[in-house]
């Protein structure tokens, strides 16, 4: 599983063969959107969402927005 | 939601009604609150309550006639709690002058005369002084409390009276003894004109001789309004044993009169109505219900030294006998109601407020959506408050206002869409016939859990029933109903109804008690029979396996709580099969397995508690007749079997069968349809159906499978991600592990799968999901 902490895994875009690097990404839910820094392909902008983010912070924000 | 209806429902819950002791006490002393302090050993805390209610705590705690104890519910389980003795102990062991009330500042300070320095007069004096008024007391005798200084049962030490009298000075009350009011003393006119108001606490004798300019009755006593203590003079009030005597003397009734007359005087000063909102003044019967049969009888604690009264330790022991009285009948039986730490009256308010607010967090959303809607609360409630109906209304309102949280029911509704869609839904006459006398409706969950039994039951019905037995696969719409999606629910029912009409309105045979309930509640014109009642009529096929030897405990699905006939049929069948069975408690109060109301999707922890509580009620293996109940028990490690396991089962130990899980549930339904089409109607199904597993082939080890189940991610979702990644090449390679990570968003949810090629398929290493969209949101 992808739970291991540092050093950060080297993630490569399958299409462009480029290493993913941090960049601005837009997330949107229930009519709200915000910019966050995530690993993404510098060329095609394919984004990687790690498990910790999806099941942690993202889920909290989802619920908070749903409750609004 | 309608405000009036909400208020009616709130009022139905009696949990906030006072306990009998408090309701019976003429001044409604919070005896239960006092007991709660004392039982914790906090006697000064107990005194705090005593001092808040009793104007003269040292005196009244000894001489009170304590009517509270007459109705104490402890008497139904032992003896009444010695409330008055505990008050005395609070005074003896917890007295602190700082707990006595202090004078407030009055808006408009008035001057009040009190005539008579007995209990009622001095109570009125203290209460009015606390309200900030200036009070002068006139007493004909040479001392205050003349009557109770003679108290002999038991004697009242003078020192205690002195202790309480200090309060008069602290509050700035002036006392003039040896002052007669009326003929031969201070004139009535100077009383009526010299003060803003007066209270007369004159003792029980006739006052005809005093030349008071007031209406008197035949016995020479002042005519007093028993509610407001008003006399014929608008500024003069009266009470005490002059009103209720002379046959009895009740110290606490005198306090009551003084207190409520003072309230009238203060209302008069404020120009408020004298008679409004006084319904609960004085003793009244409470609505509070307390189930005393839950408690073992206990005798009262007797003080070692009767004369000295309770020691602190004895008081604590006696206070511990206080239950304390609460209703909470519903909270005792429901983990959902217990989970939120309060009771329906509060919940209704919270959910209603939540319904009204437009902006801000809707914290009660999850609460309204956690209820399993099983109705047990209402069954045990002395007032039959329909809390489940209310939660359902709240959900419907949320859906109508677009406020239903998408994450709550999304998964269950998609599962329902699967069952009402082509993959599963089917309606056919028996092969070789063009009409149906009966129609077998096994339901989506039995088909998902035990498709073999469905096939076998259908074969048996065809063999036994004349006139053709049609088959209808589909879903009754319960998930939509539970989720508050009335529109969706209505249209699901409508399409069932259309099919049923098309098939010539046959008798419907249900195997699932939820379907049975839904049809009975929402399509009363459907001729519905439960499979169990029918089996009782037509008999059972010979069992394929010997029944288990040990006794089984019957878990009746919550949807059969009011279906005594169905419950009885199931027992008759078990008898016929030859298994020993026993009830779990009262079948009329059976509880939910945590699936009802979609509870397990909204609040899995509460659902697990619900099922675990039920599972603990008997050590025996359970037998039930709802596939969801059976599978939920299995999921939580409770051995359980379905009645059909005993009829058609071929397994050696069906009670050990695992919960199939969500992915298999859908697959099982699809395969059942394909199989029946092939075996019964001789058709070759269009899609893969029962053939080889869908592609690509996945290797998922149990840990990942369990995680996926918890995260509500189906195998078909994983397959969708991998198929998408492998055909488009859009995937991420992790150099360290050699695994790929890819995502796919078929609809609202984005699924992520970490995988690697294995053989002709793929090994799945991890799965997770989120609802937020990357980039712009797709318009829904
Ligand atoms: S059972 Fe529950 S809802 Fe009914 S009165 Fe008691 S606390 Fe209120
Ligand atoms: Zn790329």
TrEMBL record, chain A:
InterPro entries: DUF7479 (IPR055902), DVU_1557-like (IPR054656). Residues 11-68 form the DUF7479 domain. NCBIfam families: DVU_1557_fam. This is DUF7479 domain-containing protein. It comes from Telmatospirillum siberiense. The lineage of its organism: Bacteria, Pseudomonadati, Pseudomonadota, Alphaproteobacteria, Rhodospirillales.
Automatic annotation (TrEMBL), chain B:
GO terms for cellular component: plasma membrane. InterPro entries: 4Fe4S_Fe-S-bd (IPR017896), 4Fe4S_Fe_S_CS (IPR017900), Cys_rich_dom (IPR004017), DPD_II (IPR028261), FAD/NAD-bd_sf (IPR036188), FAD/NAD-binding_dom (IPR023753), HdrC_iron-sulfur_subunit (IPR051460), Helical_ferredxn (IPR009051). One of its GO terms (molecular function) is metal ion binding. This is Amine oxidase. It holds the Pfam family Fer4_17. Residues 362-390 form the 4Fe-4S ferredoxin-type domain. Keywords: 4Fe-4S, Iron, Iron-sulfur, Metal-binding, Oxidoreductase.
């Amino acid at each position: 599983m992808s739970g291991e902490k540092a050093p950060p895994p080297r993630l490569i875009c399958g299409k462009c063969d480029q290493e993913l690097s941090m960049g601005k990404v837009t997330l949107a839910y229930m009519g709200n959107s915000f910019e966050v820094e995530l690993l993404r392909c510098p060329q095609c902008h394919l984004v990687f969402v790690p498990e910790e983010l999806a099941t942690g912070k993202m889920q909290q924000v989802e619920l908070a927005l749903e409750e609004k | 939601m309608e405000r009036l209806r909400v208020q009616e429902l709130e009022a139905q819950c009696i949990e906030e009604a006072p306990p009998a002791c408090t309701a019976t006490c003429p001044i409604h002393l919070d005896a239960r609150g006092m007991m709660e302090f004392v039982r914790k050993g906090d006697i000064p805390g107990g005194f705090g309550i005593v001092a808040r209610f009793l104007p003269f705590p040292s005196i009244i705690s000894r001489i009170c006639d304590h009517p509270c104890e007459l109705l104490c519910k402890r008497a139904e389980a032992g003896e009444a709690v010695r409330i008055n003795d505990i008050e005395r102990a609070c005074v003896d062991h917890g007295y602190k002058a700082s707990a006595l009330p202090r004078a407030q500042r009055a808006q408009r300070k008035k001057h009040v005369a009190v005539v008579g320095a007995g209990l009622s007069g001095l109570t009125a004096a203290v209460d009015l002084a606390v309200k900030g008024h200036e009070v002068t007391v006139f007493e004909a005798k040479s001392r205050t409390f003349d009557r109770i200084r003679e108290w002999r049962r038991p004697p009242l030490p003078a020192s205690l009276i002195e202790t309480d009298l200090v309060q008069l000075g602290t509050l700035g009350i002036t006392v003039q003894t040896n002052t007669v009011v009326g003929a031969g003393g201070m004139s009535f006119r100077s009383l009526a004109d010299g003060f803003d108001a007066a209270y007369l606490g004159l003792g029980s004798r006739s006052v005809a001789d005093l030349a008071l300019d007031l209406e008197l009755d035949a016995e020479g006593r002042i005519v007093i309004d028993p509610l407001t203590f008003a006399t014929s003079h608008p500024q003069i009030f009266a009470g005490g044993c002059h009103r209720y005597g002379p046959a009895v003397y009740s110290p606490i009734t005198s306090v009551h009169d003084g207190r409520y007359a003072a309230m009238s005087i203060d209302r008069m000063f404020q120009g408020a109505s004298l008679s409004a909102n006084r319904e609960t003044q004085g003793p009244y019967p409470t609505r509070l219900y307390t189930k005393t049969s839950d408690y073992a009888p206990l005798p009262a604690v007797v003080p070692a030294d009767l004369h000295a009264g309770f020691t602190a330790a004895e008081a604590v022991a006696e206070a511990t006998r206080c239950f304390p009285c609460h209703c909470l009948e519903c909270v005792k039986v429901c983990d959902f109601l217990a989970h939120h730490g309060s009771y329906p009256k509060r919940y209704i308010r919270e959910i209603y407020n939540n319904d009204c607010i437009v902006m801000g967090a809707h914290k009660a959303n999850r609460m309204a959506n956690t209820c399993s809607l099983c109705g047990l609360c209402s069954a045990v409630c002395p007032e039959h408050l329909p809390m489940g109906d209310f939660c359902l209304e709240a959900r419907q309102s949320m859906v109508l206002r677009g406020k239903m949280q998408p994450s709550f029911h999304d998964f269950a509704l998609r599962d329902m869409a699967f069952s009402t869609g082509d993959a599963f839904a089917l309606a056919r006459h028996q092969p070789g016939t063009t009409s149906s006398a009966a129609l077998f409706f096994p339901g989506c969950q039995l088909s998902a859990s035990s498709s073999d039994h469905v096939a076998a039951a259908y074969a048996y019905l065809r063999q036994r029933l004349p006139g053709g037995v049609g088959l209808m696969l589909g879903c009754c719409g319960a998930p939509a109903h539970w989720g508050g999606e009335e529109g969706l629910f209505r249209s699901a029912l409508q399409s069932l109804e259309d099919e049923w009409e098309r098939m010539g309105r046959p008798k419907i045979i249900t195997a699932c008690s939820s379907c049975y309930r839904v049809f009975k509640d929402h399509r009363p014109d459907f001729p519905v029979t439960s499979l169990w009642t029918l089996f009782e009529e037509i008999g059972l096929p010979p069992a394929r396996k010997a029944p288990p030897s040990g006794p089984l405990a019957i878990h009746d699905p919550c949807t059969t709580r009011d279906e005594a006939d169905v419950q009885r049929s199931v027992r008759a069948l078990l008898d016929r099969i030859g298994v020993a069975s026993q009830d779990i408690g009262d079948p009329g109060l059976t509880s939910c397995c945590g699936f009802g109301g979609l509870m397990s999707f909204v609040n899995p922890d509460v659902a697990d508690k619900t099922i675990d509580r039920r599972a603990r009620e008997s050590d025996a293996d359970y037998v039930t007749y709802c596939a969801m109940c059976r599978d939920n028990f299995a999921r939580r490690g409770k051995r359980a079997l379905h009645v059909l396991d005993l009829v058609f089962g071929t397994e050696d130990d069906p009670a050990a069968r695992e919960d199939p899980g969500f992915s298999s549930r859908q697959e099982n339904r699809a395969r059942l349809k394909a199989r029946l089409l092939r075996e019964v109607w001789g058709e070759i199904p269009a899609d893969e159906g029962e053939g080889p597993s869908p592609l690509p082939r996945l290797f998922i080890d149990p840990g990942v499978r369990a995680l996926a189940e918890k995260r509500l991610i189906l195998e078909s979702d994983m397959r969708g991600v991998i198929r998408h990644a492998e055909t488009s090449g859009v995937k991420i390679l992790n150099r360290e592990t050699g695994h790929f990570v890819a995502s796919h968003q078929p609809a609202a949810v984005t699924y992520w799968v970490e995988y690697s090629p294995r053989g002709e398929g793929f090994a799945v290493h991890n799965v997770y999901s989120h609802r937020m969209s990357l980039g712009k949101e797709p318009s829904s």
